[in-house]
Amino acid sequence: MRPTGRLHLGHYHGVLKNWVKLQHEYPCLFFVADWHALTTSYEDTQVIERSVWDMLIDWLAAGVDPSQATLFIQSRVPEHAELHLLLSMMCPLGWLERVPTYKDQQEKLADRDLATYGFLGYPLLQSADILIYRANLVPVGEDQVPHVELTREVARRFNHLYGREPGFEDKAREAVKKLGGKRGKLYEELRTLYQQEGKDEALAQGKALLEEAQSLSMGDRERLYGYLEGSGKMILAEPGALLTEAARMPGLDGQKMSKSYNNTLMLREEPEVVTKKIRGMKTDTQRVRRTDPGDPDRCPVWQFHVIYSDDSVKQWVQEGCRSAGIGCLECKQPVIDAVLKEQAPIHERARQYEEDPMLLRNIVADGCERARKLASETMRDVREAMGLNY
Ligand code: SF4
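Above: the input entities. Below: the structure tokens describing the complete assembly.
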């Protein structure tokens, strides 16, 4: 997640609650994408530091548990940059220009000069962020699926270019020559397997081929098996997208909750402010007087009830609003109560980190160390596969 300042309830319902769930189901890595913040905000870097720490507190406050998941900061794991650089050498320009968010963002952020090298390359930096941990799943919304697809293509291209033993083809040709009558077929099949399918498929089919090649001597069979096993290595794993259903959190005005619409309730908003903001929410504009009946479908407060209230409260709102049996302030109170109840444990967890910044720094230092260990293992294999481990 990019460090863009304190998080609001839209982030909580849309992303963080899902992370909290995922951390019990998978080994998870969650990181602050501070270099990504530079791709669009390179002119104003002062705000990044504060945002990084605020955001980490928000994650922990939301229930992300550092004993379950690894939390770290991207720039503390420089291997991300090294892998990004190496991938940039082999990533065709067209692949990056085709990413749908590229033109989209340039148009949306027309006030900034985004005709930069870093901005074009940011999906590839994302690919490096994923591939460096050999992640097999990335939790994303629909709009990010093309980025995961690009990552798969990049991994495939890398494995195709560097995933074979140097001189493999000559060795295989030589081995197959010794295999007798079936060599033509075997050679062709092996070549295709290594190039297209990768190691697992090659192994499975290779074993089947060996069964077929009953006329071979034991030595030849073993040799062939050795090539199958040692070649067509998957250096970088192709990740899949773990689609999360986008829980749309309405803002105070009924539009999507977003800082740019100025309609947010912050994750760690003070209870008095929450109360004041919700009490001040606009309601059905056609309900002018208390005695006028209203329609919840025209009212942003109803959208909050949809998220926070149980069936009996919802029924109370529907009937009370349409019959003018309840007033709008009365109607807002269960929403206020529910938001405050949701936030109570969040405030509670945040307090320890707000009071003791070292606690947070230590958690992040541990996370960075764990991440770096994983990243450096991948980079060792990447350098070796590319012939750069001199
Ligand atoms: Fe909205 Fe509730 Fe007022 Fe109806 S009673 S207009 S749902 S705040």
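Note for the figure: The two ends are 35 Å apart (CA to CA).
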